[in-house]
Predict the structure.
Amino acid sequence: MFTTIKNFLGLDIKAKKFSLSDDPLFGRIADAKKPDKWVFSTCGYCGVGCGLYIGVKDGKAVYTKGNATHSVNMGTLCPKGLSEHELITSSNRVTAPLIRRNGKLENGSWDEAFTRVSETFKSISEHYGPRAIGVLSTGQLLTEEFYTLGKLVQLGLRTNNYDGNTTLCMASAVMGYKQSLGSDGPSGSYEDFECADVIVLVGANIADNHPILKLHIAKNPKKPKIIVIDPRKSKTAQMADLFIPLKPRTDLALFNGLSYIVLEQGWENTEYLKANVTGLGELRKHLQNYPPQEVADITGIDVKTLYELARLIALSPAALTAWTMGVNQSFLGTDTVSAIINLHLLTGQIGRPGAAPFSITGQCNAMGTRESGFTSSLPGYRNYGDVKAAEEYARIVNVPIDIIPTSRGYKYGEIIEAIERGEIRALWVVATNPLVSFVDQTRLRKALAKLDLLVVQDAFMSDTALLADVVFAAATWGEKEGTYTNSERRCNRANKALTPPGIAMSDFDIFLEFSTYFEGVKELIYPAWSTPADAFEEWKRVSRGQLCDYSGMSYEMMEKYGGIQWPCNEQFPLGSSRLYTPEIAFRTYDGKAKLLPFEWIPLQEPTGEQFPILLNTGRTVEQWHTRTKTGDIAILNDLAPESWVDINPADALALEVKSGDRLSISSPRGQVENIVVRVTQTVREGNVFVPFHFNTQLINTLTPSQFCPKSGEPNFKQCAVQLHSQRVPQGISYPKKISTLELSYVEKLEWEKHIEKSIDSVLKQ
Ligand SMILES: Nc1nc2c(c(=O)[nH]1)N[C@H]1C(S)=C(S)[C@@H](COP(=O)(O)OP(=O)(O)OC[C@H]3O[C@@H](n4cnc5c(=O)[nH]c(N)nc54)[C@H](O)[C@@H]3O)O[C@H]1N2
Ligand SMILES: Nc1nc2c(c(=O)[nH]1)N[C@H]1C(S)=C(S)[C@@H](COP(=O)(O)OP(=O)(O)OC[C@H]3O[C@@H](n4cnc5c(=O)[nH]c(N)nc54)[C@H](O)[C@@H]3O)O[C@H]1N2
Ligand code: SF4
Ligand SMILES: [Mo]
């Protein structure tokens, strides 16, 4: 029945053996599980947006299979997609509203839950003003739901202190696109991976986090050069033709340096610049601060490699630069995005097949939030403060202009600070789990304890729900309907295959129903709405004429074509693969993109004597974020059941640990105990990597409250820490006598042999 397989640490684990020929019952079992129907849908995990079918038998989801005709995934799915139907029956589901009574969360009715929350919201609003209510939402609802929530929060509750987990994720890309190109919106398409000559992946570990994208690279007949820029030799770096192991958080200097070389060598695309771009003079002057040798010193990448990289991007017929959290999650996030865009504008690598600066989105509907959600802009990428845009929106949806917010409220981190000050007194958390995912957890927990009311709307009993005063029980993926928009602006249909458990309701129904507890609100903002399609029809009208134009789409078209890429209108009836082609202008006042000069600055919290190690955090393919969805799926969880720390052999030697031992990690903000060691060359000496998924080893206890001033995105990827082992509890003392970074390559090989031997001797003790 059982067999032995290796888990992520290379340790043996027992797994159930599965062999068809051994199992005489198989035929009957297979028949018993044969779905009665297959329901068209879209994966609800990551921003790749794979098309799939949910197999339903007797009202239960029994399979998920890839949609063979879908252009995104061509029939395949990653392990999370393949097991997605299992999350629906997780033992951790919330099936009825919960209300805290005498300190305990107990089942309640919807009426009780809505009454308790609406009464408290009203009383807080009366005493302290509506902005004393804060709302944190997510990139994981359906677009129809976001749009509906945005209206309720901003036009119904009248608070603009509304943000979400997208600020932990895509906010820097949003602000970077806005400042450089005039509007948010990724310009490229997965097609571009199939025809680029060069693909640069910056801080994007697609092998773990967007695995299906690899198919599009594999389809490229040109066998493109793959360049990976990451301080860590990630799984993605291992498939690179050229790996650029830059020093952490030096990307902005790197891209400034590449632009310097382009101008120095005359590799810029003069014709493109003249017709489409402003700001060349100022950028040229600014880049004088980034000569190659200086950039080599900052980034740790030698001058020759810098020239090679600049040449490849500038002179290849088509170059694509895709980035994710290694760029966005930075105190320099927004400006780093603009530095990447600068290089693409200078070289004219934009708006053509295979040529784009391209942010890969994280969550299944990060794009939908950005476009429709009333968080970083008014719906349809209309800017706050733009009177004409506000008037237009008010006219389209038929509400008085004076209720349209004129400025953005607090960003995520600022909402937490406002709670600390007592300025925000009630918080409504929708489909996000800050008590694992936000920085500086001890501080956050203290802040949340100050609230008069914490409402959590979740489909699972999340860490944050455990602390709530009221929990709204939500349906999840597969139990509700609407649309998701993926990284390449493709809007696709997610259908309802099952009824939600217990009395849980779809987020859409929760918003509609909850709005009736506030006098006149439903009549004003959702007149005659009853289904998500009503929200979608309004959204089509609201987005019409905007860059993110959905006006030509319909649910039927999405199912027929496997999703449609915006803009979709009379001009592009089947959508458009890319933006900023000759037909689609930049959304700046003069229609031209801007070259922008930005300065690199060193880390705000550098390593030092007390905290000499740099902590990097991220993900693994088997787990999804805070594990409410994946923690109960055996096939995923057994492969990555607990946290671990990747540590370089040199540091392992100093701490006298081997793979499988345990470590504690401390930072100025706290300590995390009991993390399994994995000794590996994938991290450099003095650097460690820990996934952020696990509440049992809550790594965000250590991360700092440091944010990009423009986007508000946290600097999740660098944090000064110390490591403590049983044998060396005081940790590593720096500077050490020998550093591999200072050794020549030959010396380094000798050094590595020496380390392996020493580790062997530690093992034998
Ligand atoms: N399996 C799985 N897939 C997911 C998710 C998940 O939780 N699980 N989450 C989804 C979401 S919401 C997101 S946002 C994406 C995230 O997708 P990714 O951004 O690929 O994920 P991360 O692991 O956070 O970080 C990416 C890389 O940034 C590197 N990095 C760290 N510091 C720097 C730096 O200074 N410069 C550069 N250039 N790189 C650096 C890290 O070493 C890491 O390899 O994944 C999505 N897909
Ligand atoms: N150290 C560190 N921290 C990080 C990151 C990092 O790289 N390093 N990455 C950051 C990034 S990019 C992201 S996106 C965040 C993600 O962080 P979170 O948003 O906190 O993570 P999730 O686990 O996806 O939370 C989604 C919540 O929604 C619930 N849910 C699922 N389906 C539904 C539904 O249909 N309706 C409702 N109402 N609820 C639902 C889930 O149970 C879960 O509690 O983490 C951030 N935190
Ligand atoms: S790659 Fe992303 S969208 Fe595709 S199956 Fe995996 S998690 Fe789902
Ligand atoms: Mo994300």
About this structure: The first helix runs from residue 26 to 33.
